[in-house]
Amino acid sequence: MSIVVNLDVMLAKRKLKLKELSEKVGVSTVNLSILKQGKVKAIRFSTLDAICLALDCQPGDILEYVE
Amino acid sequence: MKKLKKIAVILLMTLISGLGGYYYLISESPFTMAIPLLIGGFFIFNLIIRKSLAFKEYFTSEYNFFTAKARMEQSYDISKELMFEKIKEVIDESDFKLVEADKDKFEILAISRITFKSWGENLYISFETRGNETIMKFCSSTLFQVSSWGKNEKNYEALLNEIETSLTV
C-alpha cells in the first residue's frame, strides 16, 4: 500500500508509549498496533482527530503517501 | 425477563420428566428407558466438558457423528500474536463468550449460549503463520446435534464480519 503510517515516528518524537496514547485516545493498544503497522482497513476521522490532539500534530504527520 | 426464563426452564424440565415417566409406564420393557437416559446423559456430558480446550478433538473430530461441524479458514496480513489479541477483543464484544485462550498453542475457545438464535456452539479458533500471513482456522461445532440447519455458519459468519468491521479503527 502506498499510504505509510508514521505513528511510531510521532510517538518517538513525543516520547510517548503506545499504551499511553491508547489511554489518551480511547483506542485499544491492539488496534493502535495494527494501525501502526498500516494493516487497518480504514481509519475514522474521530480516531485521527483524537490522535492528532494527543500527539499535537497534523494528520499529514501520521499519514504519508509514498509513490 | 430472567424470572420468565427460569419459569420456562422449570416448566420444560417438568414436561420432559413427566413425559419420561409416561414413556416408562407405557413401554413394555424398562430397557426402552435406556435410550432417552442415554441421550440425556450424553447431552449433559457434552455440556460439562464443552468449556475446555482439552476436549477440542472430541468435538471437532469427523468421527463424532453427534456434533455438526462447520470449518472455515481466513487469512490476514497481521502477525499471529496481534491477531490473537484482536480476536479476543472481538469475541468480548460479540454474542460469543470467551472461555479459554491458550497463548502458547495459539488456540481460542468461545462458546455461545443456547438461545433461539443459537444451538449452543463451541467455536475453536487456531492461528498459524504461512509466509507473511496469519491463517485463522475456525471450527464451529454444535453441542449435541447432528445438523445445525445453517445456524452454525450464520453465527460464525457474523463473528467474521465483526472482525472485518473491527479493522476500521
Rg on CA atoms of chain A, Å: 11 Å
* Mean pLDDT value of chain A: 91
Strand order of the largest sheet of chain B: 1-5-4-3-2
Oligomer class: heterodimer
- Major beta sheet of chain A, specifics? 2 strands, antiparallel
Structural commentary:
Chain A is mainly alpha-helical. Chain A has helices at about 5-15, 20-25, 30-35, 45-55, 60; strands at about 5, 65. Chain A has 5 helices and 2 strands; from the N terminus they run βαααααβ. The longest helix of chain A is centred in the last third of the chain and has 11 residues, at about 45-55. The radius of gyration of chain A is 11 Å and the shape is globular. Helix content of chain B is about 45%, strand content about 25%. Chain B has 5 helices and 5 strands. In chain B, helix 4 crosses helix 5. The interface of A and B includes residues 34 and 40 of A.
